[in-house]
Amino acid sequence: MALQKESRRMVRALLAALISLLMPVALSGTAVADGGKSPRTWTVQVGSESADQAIQGMSFLPENIYINAGDRITWKANAAEIHTVTFLAEGQSLESTQPFNPGNPQYVEAQGGKSYDGKSYYNSGVMTNVSDSGFKEVGRYSLKFPDPGEFTYYCLVHGMAMKGTVHVREAGTDYPYTQSQYDRQSNKQERKILRDGYEQWDAARAKADDHTVIAGTDNETAMLMRFVRAHIVVHVGDEVTFVNDGMGAPHTVTFGEEPADEFAAVGDPADFTGGDLSSGLMLPKGTFTVKFNKAGEFDYICALHDFMGMKGTVEVRD
What we know:
Blueprint: H1 2-27, E1 41-49, E2 55-61, E3 64-68, E4 71-77, E5 86-87, H2 105-108, E6 122-123, E7 140-145, E8 149-155, E9 159-169, H3 179-207, E10 212-218, E11 222-228, E12 231-235, E13 239-243, E14 254-255, E15 277-278, E16 287-291, E17 296-301, E18 311-317
Parallel strand pairs: 1-4, 3-9, 10-13, 12-18
Antiparallel strand pairs: 1-2, 2-11, 4-7, 5-6, 8-9, 10-11, 13-16, 14-15, 14-17, 17-18
């Protein structure tokens, strides 16, 4: 008898375990139980990054989201790199906003209301998950979408390389995905972005040598915010060339005090003996060659991305 009771308990335990495994599958089906009748709030991640912030992703995750009229989306900053969530005005071209101008309040401050009208300019301001980016930290940005339509938005910092689309259907339409399904898609894409970033890092190591430092690299998926060969040893009279090996992200090579205008060149790179020296804005494929005419250790940063750890040292020996 005791054996029979024990067997029944085991059967009940197995059934409970089976139900617990099947319930998430049942609940994560393509249609929502209420048929999509209740307004919902959805989450989209803005950017992505590795744990050490060396690799930064240029994606809204998910890139495409399907919602219903009356729903709201909250965009959440998910990286140290700065981004914006920007819906352009009717007739406004993305080209008219490029390159990103950090001195333009239309780009760096919130614009528009809390409910999207489908035709006006709306902007989140600069979104980042750190407080030392040089901009006012905006961690979240929310908009309500009262009307159906297809609405494309951009990150003004990264232009065409970073865009997303909100597909708004009539209220009451069944949702094709749940938030948890979007999250799983996003996590998968994040892992892909990280793999891409590490591949870029390996390729940059192959290009760097004792007199060549790769000053960041990027493609349309990920950015590497590091100097590759960040610590090198040279001798007095040697030259070192810094190369921005990316496609879109600018950088600087800045020794000494960071200039008030980080975009401006400072000092004479043909005769560096210490003090203040800066490349100014190094655009993709740009180079900056410095001749070191004095022994010592000279620290440098990217004035745009030092808060992510983009720093290096040149050790100059006699």
